[in-house]
User: What shape does this take?
Amino acid sequence: MSETLCVIALGGNLGDVPAAFRRACEALSNAGFRIRRFSSLYRTAPVGCEANAPEFTNAALSGFWDGTAPGLLQLCQRIEADNGRPNDHAHHVSRTLDLDIILFGRETVDLPDLKIPHPEAARRAFVMDPLREIEPELANWLLSVAEEDPGGMRN
Assistant: This one.
């Protein structure tokens, strides 16, 4: 299988988030994900979280993966759990680490537990700003896909 250029968004607002990002990068690398670029850290207000939730730290990374998108999702979920995020968690709550697969090449994945491109990515500055920093061409492509099929990106 050939390698696929992927983009993962990172976020967290509990504990030492930059350290969690470093651990996530190390775990991704140890599992065979070849990191190409890592964005600056962005501080953002929580979106849809519980009242008085602390600010989030967000970033994005791009890299190459020679496995499947579901395999990368399993890896990301394991890394989240290893960093203190319960496997069974509410959708919009504070967290130590969140890893979202935003792009898997230019593929579309539509599985019950995995939608790529990430359905909400194009509408979220905390995803798009780091993505534009590290992979401007992919950011433009994602925006064009969202404009062509806004209903498809939201499902």
The mean pLDDT is 90.
